[in-house]
Amino acid sequence: MHRLSLNTHQKMEMLDITPMVRQVVAQEGIQEGIAVIYSPHTTAAITVNENWDADVVHDVLLFLRQTIPTRYPGFRHQEGNSDSHIMVNLMGSSATVIIEQGALMLGQWQGIFFCEFDGPRQRQFWVQLVGQ
Hints:
There is one protein chain. This protein is an alpha+beta fold. It has a single domain, classed as Jelly Rolls (Sandwich). The chain has 3 helices and 8 strands; from the N terminus they run ββαββααββββ. A 5-stranded antiparallel beta sheet has the order 1-8-3-5-6, with helices on one face. The protein has a 3-stranded antiparallel beta sheet with strand order 2-7-4, sandwiched between helices. The longest helix is centred in the middle third of the chain and has 14 residues. The protein is elongated and about 50 Å long. The mean pLDDT is about 95. This is Secondary thiamine-phosphate synthase enzyme. InterPro entries: UPF0047_YjbQ-like, YjbQ-like_sf. It holds the Pfam family YjbQ. Belongs to the UPF0047 family. It comes from Sulfobacillus thermosulfidooxidans (strain DSM 9293 / VKM B-1269 / AT-1).
């Protein structure tokens, strides 16, 4: 398993980690299999989405901000970041991508994103490769 680190710079952002995951696949020389990309944080998610047009990331974050309020009557979590936990539940903590002929099998416009919902912070994500 590979533990990769990154720094986030905003409360909410989506960072394209595709090049980092591709580097792990190349390092390991996996030709056929899968890559599991996982966030060990309760306020940060992993997702696959469009990485060609930055407006997609903008729109996803805008929708989440407007749909899930930072403060909500009845939220009881002492740290005040219940919104971040809810966003992770919606987005998911991992993604699985097929590896074929040594390459991540992503669609033409797809990338793998680390989604920060409670930053800025120093974060990790883990990559586990299965295959040969």
